[in-house]
């Protein structure tokens, strides 16, 4: 079987290995009382189990990197952020690992917020103004011509 592509292939996330990072965002509503990030992490690991041997043969580690839609990272995602920040700080020689990790977390938060806004806008009905007025009249049982 051929390995499915990950979102990011990098050598910065796990020391001495190439990591196939599979980024995911999940909602607590999907976890049915459990930890949503952990549930998605486990599901992604199980989905990729058939490809694990092939990836290992190529010295690639598959790692789901999961956040909730509210911005809380799974422990593995936080570990990846710290590892990448540590590598960047080492390369720059002067940068603070903690500051880099905070910048990364802020960027992830912005991406998650943009995603939520796009999803919200995608759910709005696509109607012309006249169609929207007719639908509002029907919904609120307004008599034709009444705009209150």
Low-confidence parts: none
Helix content estimate: 40-55%
Helical/strand content category: alpha+beta
Cα end-to-end separation: 62 Å
Query: What portion of the residues fall into strands of 2 or more residues?
Result: 5-15%
Q: Order of strands across the biggest sheet?
A: 1-2-3
Radius of gyration over all CA atoms, rounded: 22 Å
Largest sheet: 3 strands, mixed
Give an overview of the whole structure:
The chain contains five helices and three strands. It is of the alpha+beta class. Strands 1-2-3 form a three-stranded mixed sheet. A hairpin with a 7-residue loop joins strand 1 and strand 2. Helix 3 crosses helix 4. The model has no long low-confidence stretch (mean pLDDT 85).
Question: What would the keywords be for this entry?
Answer:
148 residues, alpha+beta, 3 strands
């Amino acid at each position: 079987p051929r390995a499915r592509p990950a979102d990011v292939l990098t050598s910065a996330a796990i020391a001495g290995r190439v990591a196939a990072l599979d980024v995911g965002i999940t909602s607590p509503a999907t976890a049915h009382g459990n930890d949503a990030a952990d549930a998605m992490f486990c599901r992604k690991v199980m989905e990729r189990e058939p490809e694990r041997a092939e990836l290992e043969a190529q010295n690639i580690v598959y790692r789901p990197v999961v956040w909730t839609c509210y911005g809380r990272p799974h422990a593995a995602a936080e570990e990846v952020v710290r590892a990448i920040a540590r590598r960047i700080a080492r390369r720059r020689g002067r940068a603070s690992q903690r500051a880099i990790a905070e910048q990364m977390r802020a960027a992830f938060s912005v991406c998650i917020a943009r995603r939520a806004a796009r999803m919200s806008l995608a759910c709005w009905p696509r109607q012309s103004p006249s169609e929207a007025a007719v639908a509002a009249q029907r919904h609120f049982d307004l008599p034709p011509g009444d705009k209150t």
